[in-house]
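Box 3.1. Reading complex inputs
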Amino acid sequence: MTETTTERRAGRPRSERAERAIVEATLDLLAAESGVAGVTIEAVASRAGVGKATIYRRWPNKEALIVHALATVKAPLPEPSGGSVREDLLELALAMGAERKRKYAKCFWNVVGSAEKHPTLYARYRQDVIEPRRDVIRAVLARGVRGGELRADLDLEVGVTMLVGSLSTRVPGEALPDGYAETVVDTLIRGIGAPGS
Amino acid sequence: MTETTTERRAGRPRSERAERAIVEATLDLLAAESGVAGVTIEAVASRAGVGKATIYRRWPNKEALIVHALATVKAPLPEPSGGSVREDLLELALAMGAERKRKYAKCFWNVVGSAEKHPTLYARYRQDVIEPRRDVIRAVLARGVRGGELRADLDLEVGVTMLVGSLSTRVPGEALPDGYAETVVDTLIRGIGAPGS
C-alpha cells in the first residue's frame, strides 16, 4: 500500500490507471458467484485490459493481488475521537454499519467462505486487512481498562469479537436498523464496564 | 421434512437412499467453491446417480432442494433445559460452538455470500432454517424478561443477534477457544440482565 501511495503522489497517471483497472477487475471477479475461484491473473488481465506482465510487476501472485484489492475497499477503521469508551465504540460501530451497503461487501463473504480451501489467502487477509481494523477497537478497549472505565479482567478479544459480531451477523447488505448500533454498544458497555462505574 | 420423516418411518429404503444421495449431492455442490451457482438440478441428479424426475417429484425447484438440504444439516437448536437464563444461553452457545467443525459449514457461508444474487433463496433459508433456531434463543430471553432476570426494555432481536454474532464471527471452521462461550454469555448477561439482579 505504501509503495502505491508513493507512486500516486509522484503522479504516474498511466500506471495509476492500470493499477486501478486491475484492482477493480479483481474485485468484480471476487464479487461474482465463483468468488476466489474466478480470480485468475489471466481473467484479471483480460478484464482490466492489461497484459499479465503488468500485473506481475506489481503483485507476485494472485493472493497478494486479492489481499491488496480487499484492503483498498476495507481500510482500517477511522481513529475514534477519544471521548468515553462508549462514544468511541459507537463511532466505530457506526463506521462499520456504514460499510454494509458498499458495492464490494460480497467480496468479503466470498473470501471468508473459501477460507478452508485457501487458508494462506485467508490468513493473509486476516493479518493485512482484518487485524488492523480490530487493532483500532482493541486500543479503545485497552484504554478503557487502563482508565478504569472497563473491567480489569476484560478479555480484549472477546470484547472486539462481540462488537464486530453483533454488527456483522445480520442480513448481508441490509442497513442496520435505526438505533441498533447504539443499543449494541450500550449493552456491551454494561457487559464489559467496570462494576459500579 | 415432515413428509420425509413419515416416508422414512414407513420404511421405503430405496426412496430413502435416493433422497439421501440427492441431499448429499446438493450439499457437496453447495460446499464447493462455485457455491449456489454450481447447484443445478442436472448436476445434482448426475452426482446422486438419479434421474432429474426423481428430484422434481420431491422438490419443485432448486431453491426448495437447497433449503431442505441446509435444514438437514442445521436443525433447530436443542430446547434448553430451562434453568436460569445464563444456563440456558450457555447450553445454546455451546451447541452453536459445536456445529462449527461440521463438514458442511461452508455451505452456509456460500448461501449467505450469494444473498444478493439469490434473494428468494436467502429469504427462504432465513425463514425455514435460521428463524426456527433464533426462536429458541428468543424464547429463553423472553422468559428471562417475564421472570425479571432480564431488563424489561430488552430488545430481543438485539439479544439474539449479539449472542449469535459473538459466536459466529470468528475464523470459520476453527473451534471456539476454551471458555469463550462462557465469557460471551457472562458478558451478555451483564449487558442484558435486570439492574441489580
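In summary: The longest helix of chain B spans residues 119-146.
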